[in-house]
Amino acid sequence: MRRHKWAEFLPFSIPKRTPYSDGAYAVLGRAITYIGEFESQCAALSDFIGIDNDKNRSLNERFREKFLKFVHDNDLGDHLEQMTEDLEDGRDLKKTFKKAQDSKRRIIKEIPVDKKQDLDKRESRKQFIDEVEESVRDIATADAIINSISILLTKETAFFPKKEYINEYPEKIVKWVVNQ
Question: What is the C-alpha separation between 11 and 77, in angstroms, rounded?
Fold first, then answer.
């Protein structure tokens, strides 16, 4: 009996496992693991600065607004800008956090569903990995900012990384996620 493409989405369907799909899903798993770490950082910062926020949705609009207000009210913008000036969109915190939120949703809800049946094809696998990579980079950029603010607030300047490390951080995370 011939299997139709729509059968992949029927109830009780089980995605096909191959060495290629296992590698792609390992990348996706590391991306989701990293999202969990990032969410923990956001929740810890929310607690530290007193943002009453749903910890499971740390990048929601409410968090972004309160976080931006906190940065502005405490004159942290100039310090943050100096540390993150080389990050893509690092100067535009609202845009950076919105991109990270959209990327998180894309990794968890869109990429796995859109690409699951094509992972044995080289071009589809590359597209899958490229989408995960782009999304992780967006999240890691926001994470670099969250971590920088956390360190600024603790005033532990002895532990503050060099600007170069902060600016390289997103690429280090991307490599950890996508290199198999």
Answer: 50
